[in-house]
TrEMBL record:
Positions of the Uracil-DNA glycosylase-like domain: 19-177
SMART domains associated with the record: UDG, UreE_C
Enzyme class (EC, first level): hydrolase
EC number from the UniProt entry: 3.2.2.28
Pfam families: UDG (PF03167)
Gene Ontology terms describing biological process: base-excision repair, AP site formation
Taxonomic source organism: Amycolatopsis mongoliensis
Record SUPFAM superfamilies: Uracil-DNA glycosylase-like
GO molecular function, one term: pyrimidine-specific mismatch base pair DNA N-glycosylase activity
Identification of the protein by name: G/U mismatch-specific DNA glycosylase
Length: 186
């Protein structure tokens, strides 16, 4: 179980990285914008209390129960993974430059071509638009593909994204899960 990082641990986490949770042939590779300091201090994706990724993942039907961030490696058993557009941790996503996001998009594309998940699910529409150069992209399935990998954009599950309710997030995750199951069963 996760423990709350200290002030010193949070400060030391600035510009740190978190290892990806990834393997070849995943059904869905979820991709955050970049890790926050809380996640960096714990070396766990979407670790900050109030981040709604883990509840949306469960309520959307991807996991049989609500997983905790410290159980992230167990996602691989479900053919799910996690990475980020930009690897370095920051206090806020707005600390990232557009150039950094575009470079992250190139690195992410190379990672997707290497690991070949069925779906890449970018969690954050603004980051997706900048990283891949699709300024009019909307949440949902994208026409853009990376090799054989289909792309889906989900809303940012940060607690700061008040536009999306927990139920709305869960519904978006569920749509992706349904599409993923259809593609797997073809």
């Amino acid at each position: 179980m996760s423990t709350r990082p200290t002030k010193d641990q949070l400060a030391a986490a600035h510009n740190a990285t978190i290892p990806d949770v990834i393997a070849p042939g995943l059904d869905v590779l979820f991709c955050g914008i970049n890790p926050g300091l809380y996640s960096g201090a714990l070396k766990q994706h979407f670790a900050r209390p109030g981040n709604r990724f883990w509840p949306a993942l469960h309520e959307g039907g991807f996991t049989p129960r609500l997983y905790r961030p410290d159980e992230q490696e167990q996602l691989l058993d479900l053919k799910l993974g996690i990475t980020n557009v930009v690897a370095r941790t920051t206090a806020r996503a707005d600390e990232l430059t557009d150039d950094e996001l575009r470079e992250g998009g190139k690195l992410l594309e190379a990672k997707v071509l290497e690991y070949q998940p069925r779906w890449l699910a970018v969690v954050g529409i603004t980051a997706y638009r900048t990283a891949f150069g699709f300024p009019k992209a909307r949440v949902g399935r994208q026409e853009h593909r990376i090799g054989d990998t289909c792309v889906w954009v989900l809303p940012n599950p940060s607690g700061l994204n008040a536009h999306w309710t927990p139920a709305g997030l869960a519904a978006e995750f569920a749509e992706l899960r349904t599409a993923s199951e259809r593609r797997r069963n073809r």
